[in-house]
């Protein structure tokens, strides 16, 4: 992530409730995925959970990226 993108992400996470919610959920998904990855064996339910979490995490990342792009275009200096 570029410094500019990180700066925009910090701005949005402090000013935009929806963005902050997405970011928190993204981190929660990452945390749970780390827990599952550290297990020596996973159940079928945990495998399904892992796939679902990965899809949700990617969806959240896409939403955040779109909002960052939108913020950049509306706050661009000419």
SSE blueprint:
Elements: H1 3-15, H2 17-38, H3 44-74
Helix pairs in contact: 1-2, 1-3, 2-3
Describe the structure.
This protein has 78 residues and is mainly α. It has one domain (3-74). The chain is 85% helix and 0% strand. Helix 1 packs across helix 2, helix 1 (3-15) packs across helix 3 (44-74) and helix 2 packs antiparallel against helix 3. The longest helix has 31 residues, at 44-74. The chain is elongated, with a radius of gyration of 15 Å. The two termini are 23 Å apart. The relative contact order is 0.15. The model has no long low-confidence stretch (mean pLDDT 94).
Q: Whole-Å distance between the termini?
A: 23 Å
Order of helices and strands: HHH
* Approximate shape: elongated
Number of domains: 1
Average pLDDT figure: 94
**Structural class of the helix and strand makeup?**
mainly alpha
Number of strands: 0
Q: Strand fraction band?
A: under 5%
Largest sheet: none
Rounded Rg:
15 Å
Helix percent band: over 70%
Show unreliable segments.
Answer: none
- Count of DSSP H/I helices: 3
Q: In brief, what are we looking at here?
A:
By secondary structure, the chain is an all-alpha fold. 85% of the residues lie in helices and 0% in strands.
Features:
mainly alpha, 78 residues, 85% helix, single chain, 3 helices
